[in-house]
Write a structure and sequence with these properties.
Elements lengths: L1 E2 L3 E3 L4 E6 L2 E7 L5 H25 L7 H14 L9 H9 L2 H36 L5 H17 L5 H50 L5 H17 L5 H31 L2 H15 L7 H18 L4 H29 L1 H31 L2 H26 L5
Antiparallel strand pairs: 1-2, 2-3, 3-4
């Protein structure tokens, strides 16, 4: 019989291993010596020991998952239950079991990571839903529609969470999207109806403008054209293509009218040069009346100029305000001079002014008499009051006499 520290070989070739529980047969070896038999089963132990050693190194690596570590631990445990090997199996089993804490720690980390991932996944989906709900009432149709489509893609890419929670969040997400889509459809339906009304209105305005475009009743037609432009601005907007097409027709009709009117006015103005020369001369003649010193002859001369002015006829539009303004300034100067003369010669006004002077003179005379009496009595207070009243009325009298001097005989 051949023995070693951890096993022995019986004479019949049976190989035993020694453990704390006693001896256990692990096999037999008939192909060689007892030493070779122990060496053979010792190599089997060394292989198990190497696996435990490798597991010790790998269990600490972050890339080794908890499930993989647990599976390896269980496999090695099973392998060490009754291994066909000779060696210190008790120490190797204890060494393996000491790694159980590391495997459990890795499991705890894995559970924490899964919980964190679930929390993050829930937060991500809740973020998507909350943003979608905040956009449900938006009227920025294009940008909001694009953002909701992007959120849908984010929802699809987000990690899954527990089914009830995900379904509840999806229901909210769908409700927000449906609310926005419904409002957008209603908006564009209303916009379509409004644009249909606007298009009909603008088509009518185009037809009216085209009908008026050949009119030669320049004044009323120009007023009507301005009214059509105001209605056009108030009629609302259309789709770009419809708006541009109708606007070109509308503007073309107005251009036809205004071009014809400008041509007619230019032709008429060309024939009014002689009238302008006549009115320029009449304006100069009227201006020679200034400044007005004698309103009677000035009014008579102005009436003659006005009669010739009316007989002279129309002048070019570009010169009308300027030349008529010259005559109006003379007319205004004559009118003011006549009003001033009337005020100066008004008998009623002169009589009122004379009456005021007389009344003030009489009042001053009475006050002076009262003052003399008070002075004789030695009434200082009465004398002071009379002086004050006399001074005030003399000031009034001075103004009344000045007003009286402004009146003169006609």
């Amino acid at each position: 019989m051949t023995e070693s520290t951890w096993g022995r070989v019986a004479d019949d070739g049976t190989v035993f291993v020694r453990t704390a529980d006693g001896e256990r047969a692990v096999g037999s070896y008939q192909a060689g010596s007892a030493d070779e038999a122990l060496a053979y089963y010792g190599r089997k132990y060394a292989a198990l020991e190497l696996e435990v050693e490798l597991f010790e190194r790998r269990v600490a690596l972050p890339e080794v998952s908890a499930d993989e570590a647990a599976a390896t631990l269980q496999r090695l445990r099973d392998a060490l239950v009754e291994p066909s090997a000779v060696g210190d199996l008790d120490a190797l089993r204890a060494r393996l079991e000491s790694l159980g804490g590391a495997v459990e720690h890795k499991r705890d980390e894995a559970r924490a990571a899964r919980e964190q991932a679930r929390t993050h996944a829930r937060q991500e989906r809740e973020r998507i839903v909350v943003e979608a709900e905040s956009l449900a009432g938006s009227t920025q149709w294009k940008s909001t529609g694009e953002r909701l489509r992007a959120l849908l893609e984010e929802w699809k890419a987000a990690p899954h969470i527990d089914r009830p929670s995900e379904q509840a969040l999806w229901k909210r997400f769908g409700a927000a999207r449906n609310s926005f889509d419904r409002r957008r459809r209603q908006h564009f339906a209303q916009l379509g109806a409004q644009r249909a009304d606007s298009k009909a209105a603008k088509q009518r305005l185009v037809a009216q403008a085209e009908e008026l475009s050949t009119s030669t009743d320049w004044g009323p037609t120009a007023t009507a054209m301005r009214g059509l432009m105001d209605q056009w601005k108030a009629a609302g907007t259309l789709a770009r293509s419809d708006e541009d097409a109708l606007w070109r027709r509308f503007r073309a009709a107005q251009d036809v009218f205004y071009d014809a009117r400008s041509a007619a006015f230019s032709e008429r103005d060309a024939s009014l040069g002689a009238n302008l020369a006549t009115k320029e001369a009449l304006a100069a003649e009227a201006e020679a009346l200034l400044p007005v010193t004698d309103t009677g002859p000035a009014k008579a001369a102005l009436r003659g100029i006005q009669e010739r002015w009316e007989a002279a006829g129309m002048v070019p539009r570009a010169d009308r305000d300027r030349v008529e303004g010259r005559l109006r300034r003379v007319e205004e100067a004559v009118r003011r001079a006549d009003e001033s003369r009337w005020q100066r010669t008004n008998p009623e006004g002169r009589a009122r002014a004379q009456s005021t002077v007389t009344q003030l003179e009489q009042a001053i005379a009475k006050l002076e008499a009262d003052r003399a009496k008070a002075l004789d009595r030695g009434d200082v207070r009465a004398v002071a009051g009379a002086d004050e009243a006399i001074a005030a009325r003399r000031s009034w009298l001075e103004g009344a006499r000045a007003a009286l001097t402004e009146f003169s005989p006609d």
